[in-house]
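Thread: sanity check for a docking pose with NAP

Original post by kr_44:
Hi all, I'm comparing my docking run against an independent structure prediction. Below are the sequence and the ligand SMILES. Could someone generate the full complex and paste the structure tokens? I mainly care about where the ligand ends up relative to the chain.
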Amino acid sequence: MVMAFDWQVLWNQVLALALNLQIWFIRQVLRRPAPPLFTTSAERAKLQADSEDRCVCIEILGPGGVDQLRASLDSWAVCGYNLMRDFGSQRLTSPPKPLRPDLAVVRNKAFSINYADVCIRWGLYESALRFVGWPIVPGFDLAGEVELAGEDSGLVAGDRVFGCSFFGSYATRVVVPRTQLLEMPEGLGFEAAAALPCVFATALHAVHLAGAWPNELLASGRDALVHSAAGGVGDMLCQILRICGLRVIGVVGQPSKVKSCKADVVIDKSSDDWVLRLLELPDLQLTGSQAKAQVKAAQQHAPNGYRAVFDANGVATLKMSYELLGKNGRLVVYGFHSNLPKCDGGLGMLSPWNWLRMAVDLARTPHFDPMDLTLDTKAVLGFNLSFFADETETCGKYFAQMSEWLDAGKITVPPVQTFSLSAARDAHNVLTSGRSVGKLVVERLYGLSNPQGNHGEDVKELYYYLDATPTHSYMKMMYKYPQAEYPYDELRRVNFDRKKDPQLLEYELLDTGILDDNKYFDVVVEYAQADLDDTLVQVTAWNRGATEAELALLPQAWFRNTWSWKESPSKPKPTMTYVPEKQRIELTRSRHA
Ligand SMILES: NC(=O)c1ccc[n+]([C@@H]2O[C@H](COP(=O)([O-])OP(=O)(O)OC[C@H]3O[C@@H](n4cnc5c(N)ncnc54)[C@H](OP(=O)(O)O)[C@@H]3O)[C@@H](O)[C@H]2O)c1
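Reply from moderator J.T.:
Ran it for you. Here is the predicted complex with NAP included:
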């Protein structure tokens, strides 16, 4: 069989390489500074003046580092690629009239960051290049409130929904087909909801390909190996595989990820070079007693081989993953992140050296021979969710399953780390550092929505991030809390009134005069991790005013109410106790309460 060579793919990659190198040259060699995510105040004021009812979207201008992420206010709404045929572009400049009956317009409150978004930014994501091009508003997951509902959508304005947009969710107003949305269950917040759809659909499709859902297909073995098991998709794979009755062996890259990994057995590959050495399979020519012991330990979990291995690593582990499969085992490949560099901080650009290494890794990435697959009786399967937008029936089934398991409490939302809209670049950097656990979600803070404000949405709270270690073992922030009643109504009313005159700027908390004469508290919150299970929180409030003022500090903690579940009635409720001799409040929770 002669395989047709896809010149389009090659051309896209050559173009991505050229554009990446161009921006790398501009920033690194010519040392031109990167512009901020939001435009300068003058441009912003102009944009704000005519931004009534516009949406704020974060777009990627072209291939490159995080400097290619820019905020834009020039659209009314954004859509995924499967609606671009109808609207002619990803960005709509005005409300569609009439709105197609099967669509909904969602005021997006939170969206998540997926590794795919970073690949899009580097120009390496084929579906983004093919279906959208540059500039692109990336993003898969969204959670928010329905603003306009098509007449066949079964939704009404104000309904809380979450779902998948197949690009476009980095925007505060998104047009989405009803089939890609779900109504939010009671008690689920926007940030948690935005963490779910993409990782769930990816994980469930992978498990489906492995033959473990919806029906049991494979007879032999019940062990599954999941790489990067504490990441977004990895977390969900562990949960789904366990629901499907498999025993999950999860591999994580750092000791700090072990605790949060939901696998039955967790292997920390950073503790040794066992993965690298396993690449020398099938000979297993290992040197060093520790390495041998690690390999043995890994193989002990599945002496007859794994029934399924889920691998998004690429070159680093693919060969090993194949070798570890038992008879009839299935290797499900859904990403190649070890072929790509880890970028921690900075602009996160691909340098010429990175490209060279990527080319070498691409050449080293194993190819699987159909003859070998037949003789070994193993299967290798791959997929990419971003090509699924037209498979509405499949997506519908996956979302229905997500809803059912969520309602039944069978799956939980992966750990979520939240970022503000203006920290979207930081969120990208955290994901490419390789240190992240669970999902990264960008959330809108409390403020005015587009129709309420005179220049689009705007956060009206005053807070500052003051310090943090790279591991977040220590963090410090400050919040300015007025001593008089918070002027919510005034902020809303004055900003709304200013819509009449486009020359007027936004009305901020400082403009209300509520902080005059320093009549406010500086509330400083610090987090310090004493141990993996022990987080210390210190809240210090400074009265900056001249007179005494009262401040009530209410310690709060959120837990999922698992203690009321029938299956585990013995699990005690978490407790919060004031310990006078230590002058502190202690919070105790039972394991996994
Ligand atoms: N095919 C699809 O449809 C589809 C859909 C969604 C996601 N994906 C793929 O699934 C993988 C996981 O995506 P995610 O969004 O859930 O990310 P994630 O797992 O939350 O984060 C990435 C993790 O990958 C590991 N890693 C290994 N090499 C890395 C590198 N060079 N740079 C950064 N991380 C590296 C790190 O974990 P450890 O060190 O613990 O291994 C890191 O925490 C990605 O490869 C993504 O492209 C595929």
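Confidence is low (pLDDT under 50) at residues 48-52, 274-291. Hope that helps with the comparison, let us know if your pose agrees.
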